[in-house]
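Worked example

This section walks through a single chain of length 360. The input is the sequence exactly as stored; nothing has been trimmed or padded.
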Amino acid sequence: MKIFRNDGRSAAALLLCLALATGAGGLAAQQGGGIPLNPSHPDSYVVKPGDTLWGISGMFLRDPWYWPEIWYVNPQVENPHLIFPGDVLTLVYVDGQPQIRSSRGGSAAASATDRLSPRIREEQLTAAIDTIPYEAIGPFLGKGMVLAKDEIDRLPHIVALRDNHLVGASGNDVYVRGATGNEQTLYSVVHIGDKLVDPDDGAVLGYEGIFVAAGQFRRAGDPATLVLSNSQREALKGDRLVPQAPPLPMQFEPRAPDRPVEGRIVHVSGEVTQIGQYEVVVINRGTRDGLVPGSVLTVWQVGDRVTDRVDSGLLGRKVQLPDERAGTLMVFRSYDRLSYALIMEAEAPIHVLDKVRNPS
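Given that input, the structure is written out below as tokens.
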């Protein structure tokens, strides 16, 4: 989809000139308004292809989730929340408070011709920078999932494999019952894995859907014929079919939740024991807790329970060590009772059952 807009470059250029005239020293003198700026922040920055909103936020702010509090939305610009390569972001102060403003158009200063002759500008919306690196979650989007029990019962399933094969792989045909799709529909074939239990109340949040292969119907019917591709593991009788979802919108604002949240990591995508940066995790809090794409939480490594041999003699006494901050995550997909999140920063090894809380 394309949008067309009229560039107002003269106002943008004037804004930038005023900001540069203030100077780094003047800006530093005006700080202290409560928004924690990065001590080494630039006065202005030209957005480059490959940038992310999280990374840009970190250039200007000590804590990127304060971005909505300093981002100035220009009502004269269509899609004012989107940032494009070539935009000039400038730090200014209004009533002593920092603001980031955007000069859209890829030039820090406009010529007299630009001021007198506004031009129609054409942009692809998909050219806007993403909030988090798409390549970090792209492989997950069509493969990682948590499925509810009633949802599983409604999904099409593999009833047999062609030529009496016991397992299927790329290029093999399988027979599917319960399918209503057509030849244009792409599916993920998934194996139903372990159930995910909320450690707080024992409720079943869902079941892990383990990606097996991609699939596309060769012939409709009951059973229908599906051909497998992109196999990651063996396809078996009983595996389910999930329609591949369209890509997630990747432009959203990092922000702290609007109300207190405290939960836990209940699952990590992939077979890892220590979770690091850009790993996808599942947490046991969701939309009913106020979490939306862009919600930022800190991760706290749960303190061990140890024995104090000095206190209470030989048997000692159990002592709970304090939780330690281990990193930061950002939600990118949320459901009622759970959310998928990306580990943005890992200051220490992170594990399943570590706690997540509002950033402080």
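What to look for: The chain has a mean pLDDT of 83.
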